[in-house]
Amino acid sequence: MPERRDPAAMPAPLRRDVGLLGRLLGRVLEESGGPALLADVERLRHATIALRGAGAGDREAARAEVVELVAAFDLDRAELVARAFTVYFQLVNLAEEQHRVRTLRERSRDGGTVRESFEAAVQEVRAAGGDAGLAALLDRLEVMPVLTAHPTEARRRAVVDALLRIGGLLARLDDPGLSAAEEADTHRRLLEEITVLWRTEQLRRERPTPLDEVRTVAAVFDATVFQLVPDVYRSLERALVGDAAGTRQPPFRPYLRWGSWVGGDRDGNPNVTAATTTAAMTVQADHVLRGLEAAARRIGRSLTVSAASTPPTPALLASLAGDEAAFPGPAAAIRRRSPDEPHRRKLLLVAERLAATRACLVGEPAGGSSGGLGSSPPDPPAGGYRGAEELLADLRLVQGSLAAAGAARVAYGELQRLAWQAETFGFHLASLEVRQHASVHERALAELAPDAVGDAAALDRLATDGWPAHSRATGGVAEETLATLRAMAEVQKGFGTAACRRYVVSFSRSAADLAAVRALARLAVPGGLALDVVPLFESRADLEAAPEVLDAYVALPGVAAWLQERGRRLEVMLGYSDSAKDAGFLAANLALYRAQGALAAWAGRRGVDLTLFHGRGGALGRGGGPAGRAVRGQAPGSVAGRFKVTEQGEVIFARYGNPAIGHRHLEQVTNAVLGASTPGALAALRAAEARFLPAAARMAAASEAAWRDLVEGDGFAEFFARVTPIRELGLLQLGSRPARRGGGGFDLAGLRAIPWVFAWSQNRCNLPGWYGLGAGLATVAGEPGGTATLRAMHREWPFFRSLIENAEMSLAKADPLVAEPYLRLGDRPDLVAAIREEFRRTRALVLEVTGAERLLGHRPVLRRAVDLRNPYVDALSFLQVRFLAELRAAAADGGRMADLVLLTVNGVAAGLQNTG
After folding, report:
1. Which of 318, 314, 310 is nearest to 344 (CA)?
2. In whole angstroms, what is the distance from residue 901 CA to residue 83 CA?
3. Euclidean distance between CA atoms 849 and 304, whole angstroms
4. pLDDT on residue 369
5. What is the DSSP track for 400-427?
6. Is 346 one of the annotated active-site residues of the chain?
7. Three-class SS state of 638
8. 493 a catalytic residue
9. In the chain, which end has fewer C-beta atoms inside a 10 angstrom radius, N or C?
10. What is the pTM assigned to this prediction?
11. Using N-to-C axis directions, what is the helix angle for 798-813 and 585-606, rounded to 10°?
């Protein structure tokens, strides 16, 4: 499949890679299916390119040609053609990822300050507050990515692994030192790996279990994140102290804190149980302890400084003597090899202690469930560490001894990387967070204490004073809820309170919803559980009521005492997905923005140290988009040096699958958090908000009205089910969690936001990412000076600029021409006309606001990426809509035809680079 783009439109290295991968795939197609297969693929490719380039008068004829080609394929041929386009997208994504890495390296070598970098952030904060202001902000800084198992990664792990191998080979071609023979062999290996990818099954045949998902996320930590974190810290250190980096104690504390919902999120997922949660922590601990042990051994082996050149301190010698007594066998072997290298011996015995810790806390979970949290661990584990703090004490002891002997560069080089890893990941890798729906706690209480249901004061008394002696669960919801809280206590006993202390309450609507968890925890763990109850406000109405709910909650005597003990730190989560489904794109985004501001003001009045937790999805219709710009667009005072956010599904691999891209992502987020927390940034945000918020409120009201007119109209749910592959998406084995909350028939209220957004992206409408925005913009554009106001909002208000950029991307990935055959399946011309008109209006007004001639006109790299993909996505979309109609007409499970539809779903997701 040769490349199709004008060479002038694409950087030469990217053009080379896309062309090479396309040619190799074409060769694989010929070898696998003969010249006729490649010819069919090429005919469809040329036809969709011609459709894209056709003028208004020729468009119908061009579309008819594509439809005719697709109609001529039998099922076998259609499956091969769909697979060819799917694999092509996967390879193009790799080429673009490699070019992004290449571009990042080139920028770093240019010598200037890179935009959105650590260096730029340090300069910005120093200019605003001097060294003292910078130090104060760094001391408060926290960035907390929370990885979730939300089912948005459509690719099998085998496909991801094959792509990683191909990516490594592609990167090798950038090495200028390759010989001709090495280059030829790399091409040969690429052809081999692309053949493997072509012959690899794209669809999962079984739904992953929650523990499968835990292992998948742990593999991301192993592959990139564990090494990425100290790289990020070192880059920040260089921005702060220049060439002195690595020669003294870093001038900041580690600020990255990782969280995970994988194995802890049971909201609507009956497959996640209390046993799952404890097993998940065992898997996490196994991975991080192995990583720490391997790093300690590697560094220890290289730490060959002698006692003569680098005399150890008495404290180090005393600690070494204690370790040697605890591990006489390994200590004797190490001493024989390194008799005059006490620092080396100490660090190698640190590795032995880590191995002992893992054996005690984890056992060998990789092949089964032996060991781990099922049995109470000894305290302390025999010869091991009682916690990461003891490990850090040992590492600092070695650092102090080396520094005292004049070897500061050795003390704060590789050893500091290990210390950063221990401080960031502890012995638990990521803080495991539990989430459950408020209604589940209500049902549990109805069994245990029916008189206390909905009574926050009564629940607070149960949490504070304890339950009557006869209180116990008799099974069902109550028993599993109490078992979950006991599992949290078990995890804390083994790995410390930081390992699992947060409990997120979905659809929090009252103080009683939060007090219920505290009361149930007191019954489950009478001896006390370290517990942070985190309210999750999701609908627009709940977002508006959040300060009132929190007022009632913190007024409860037990909660007030807990808040004081926690240093008045409180965490509140905001749900982007359900609010957008509830109120539409513009109204939901403004509601979230206003909630941020209202909560920040509430915290200021109450003396609460607030952290906002942003439940953003991967797709733009669920709060996705560039995280750095999103941080800058938060309400004034709502960031304040801290940013916590969910990272979901395909976003995890997109952001952290490649170390260079992961580094850049964390750098951009850190830059934005620091920059958004300066007095100057706050003043500018407040000024823009004061000027533009009234106009935004008018727009949001009109936008929400348009949204509700559409989605709440008669028959819309059935229309949605017909014009999208929403029912068929249920056949994709994306994740362990069902697509719907509860059971029963099809309705929009029970549908989760992920499949809602995913389905609209598949039919090329992308409706949740823009619908209603045009109605809102038109409200202000029709006022005197309205267009000038909108342009000023876009220029001066980061919130509005981020919103318009995200909508622009959704519009660019939508396509009315390709969407039309899907929309015809709904047999509702009135709804189709409304969607078409709102798309036309939204597109025109977005262009008027940005001043561009075409969507993404000011963002040429993104525009090029969308243009490159569109004809290829079109081919898959026309295949999908044909077989979707035939599958439904067959009124059966479809067998291979259903598999073909799902294959096109994977391909379209790869082409658009988003699922849900």
Report:
1. 310
2. 11
3. 63
4. 40
5. HHHHHTT-HHHHTTHHHHHHHHHHHHTT
6. no
7. coil
8. no
9. N
10. 0.92
11. 150
Task: At 344, list the tokens.
Answer: 């080396």
List, in order, residues 6 or more apart from 462 with CB less than 8 Å away: 449, 452, 519, 522, 523
**Among 78, 106, 104, 174, CA closest to 668:** 104
Start-end of H helices in 572-678: 576-583, 585-606, 627-632, 650-656, 659-676
Contacts of 894 (CB under 8 A, 6+ apart): 887, 901
C-alpha torsion sign, points 471, 475, 478, 479: positive
Tracing tokens 């130090």 back to the chain, one arrives at 135
Q: Compute the average pLDDT of residues 135-151.
A: 90
Sheet (strand 259-260) strand order:
431-432, 259-260, 142-148, 642-648, 609-615, 569-575, 532-537, 502-506, 434-437
Are the C-beta atoms of residues 456 and 511 closer than 8 Å to each other? Answer: yes
Paired tokens of 732: 């994709």
DSSP states of 749-793: TTB-HHHHHHHHHHTT--GGGTTTHHHHHHHHHTSTTHHHHHHHH
Cα distances (angstroms) measured from residue 160 to each of 201, 513, 910: 12, 41, 12
Antiparallel, parallel or unpaired: β 259-260 and 532-537: unpaired
The CA distance from 86 to 507, in Å, is 38
* Cα angle for residues 320, 322, 325 (degrees, 5° grid): 110
Q: What is the pLDDT of residue 475?
A: 75
By percentage, how much of the chain surpasses pLDDT 70?
A: 93
Token pair, residue 449, equals 């204490």
pLDDT for the residue numbered 371: 45
CB 597 within 8 A of CB 719: no
Cα separation, 179 vs 221, in Å, equals 34
Question: Cβ neighbours of residue 509 under 8 Å, at least 6 residues apart?
Answer: 438, 542, 545, 549
- Residues in a beta bridge with 573: 536, 613
Tokens of 178: 């390759």
What is the C-alpha to C-alpha distance for residues 913 and 381, in angstroms, rounded to an integer?
46
Q: Looking at residues 427-436, what average pLDDT do you find? A: 97
Residue with tokens 């941080």: 631
Residue 302: what pLDDT? Answer: 97
Q: Which residue from 301, 260, 300, 315 is spatially nearest to 284, judged by alpha carbons?
A: 260
Peptide bond into 176 cis (omega under 30): no
Q: The tokens of 130 are what?
A: 């001097």
Closest residue by Cα to residue 621 from 755, 750, 738: 755
Tell me the per-residue pLDDT of 375-426, one tens digit each, with 9 for 90 and over: 444 455 678 999 999 999 999 999 999 999 999 999 999 999 999 999 999 9
Dihedral angle, C-alpha 701, 705, 711, 714, nearest 10 °: 160
Q: Which residues of 18-46 are buried (b: 16+ CB within 10 A; e: fewer)?
A: bbbbbebbbebbeeebeeebbebbeebbe
Q: Distance between CA 226 and CA 288 in Å, rounded?
A: 8
Coil/strand/helix, residue 383: coil
Q: What are 861's two structure tokens?
A: 């790299």
Phi, psi of 250 (to 5 degrees): -60, 145
Question: Residue 534: what residue type?
Answer: V
Tokens of 45: 């490719």
Residue 337 burial (CB count, 10 A): 11
The active-site residue, picked from 343, 441, 581, 644, is: 581
What is each CA distance from 461 to 489, 523, 587, 655, in whole angstroms? 21, 12, 39, 45
Q: How far apart are CA 814 and CA 829, in angstroms?
A: 19
Q: Return the ∠ at Cα 629 (arms to 816 and 681), rounded to 5°.
A: 140
Which position among 150, 343, 437, 665 bears the catalytic label? 150
Q: Letter for the amino acid at 724?
A: T
The dihedral built from the CA positions of residue 227, 229, 231 and 237, taken in this order, carries a sign that is: negative
Cα–Cα distance for residue pair 776/842, rounded to 1 Å: 9
Q: How confident is the model at residue 495 (pLDDT cuts 50, 70, 90)?
A: very high
> Which run of H or of E encompasses 36?
helix 12-53
Tell me how far apart the alpha carbons of residues 576 and 569 are, in angstroms, rounded to a whole number.
23
